[in-house]
């Protein structure tokens, strides 16, 4: 235990030295750090351990997560380096799930690392299909209208959405596609800060419109189908004028995002890992 604590402290010192204390913009942090360090020798070991605990908490350096068994099983990935990449991204994803990075739970960052893993899994699958020419032709069998596919000279340059759609069509995995495509949308919104603000304005406006129009809503802000179906006239209006519009579909996606369904995303990754593992040599 003592040796492990020593290694953890070395990591902490290296991080402080390389990333924090020598940068001018972090002078405020150095000042705060000094306040945490003991000014008196009450019981040196006790005070020191207390100070280090505070510093680790402040920096969100979660060594236990680094050393623990990860939530997703990537043992089917035989390439050691590739498997370590998957596991590292999974750990980073979980840091944002449990608020260990920057002391905040962040569904957007969680989705970003979930998409990294999902796309890498799809690449593992498609790289078994041969050359880039063969891969493009294989994908076109299931996604014939994919835009820009012919211009892609590497597997990595083929968009995630194109690969995800083709894979889900080939293997009849629409529920999986629905979740992982929502992950993509969250990731895209999260990478554009202004888009997030615009989405919030849109959500509130659309929600107010639904209320004003008298549509029954559930606690998750979605239309209550079972209640709506009892009102034949209103149900017909909803189905014929609103249900399949781009705006309302976007609203439904935002409802999902606001719910922050971490476990649904993790389950989708579990399914994709298992499925890809069963379809590669």
Would you kindly provide a written description of the structure presented here, covering whatever features stand out?
This protein has helices at residues 2-20, 27-36, 44-59, 63-67, 80-98, 107-126, 132-142, 160-170, 174-190, 193-212, 225-228, 232-241, 246-259, 262-277. It has 281 residues and is mainly alpha-helical.
Protein topology:
Blueprint: H1 2-20, H2 27-36, H3 44-59, H4 63-67, H5 80-98, H6 107-126, H7 132-142, H8 160-170, H9 174-190, H10 193-212, H11 225-228, H12 232-241, H13 246-259, H14 262-277
Helix pairs in contact: 5-6, 6-9, 6-14, 7-8, 8-9, 9-13, 9-14, 10-13
Morphology: globular
Oligomer: single chain
Main pleated sheet: none
Strand content: under 5%
Helix content percent band:
55-70%
Helical/strand content category? mainly alpha
The N- to C-terminal Cα distance equals 41 Å
**How many strand segments?**
0
Based on the model shown, name its key terms:
about 280 residues, mainly alpha, about 70% helix, 14 helices
Summarize the entry for a quick read.
The protein has helices at 2-20, 27-36, 44-59, 63-67, 80-98, 107-126, 132-142, 160-170, 174-190, 193-212, 225-228, 232-241, 246-259, 262-277.
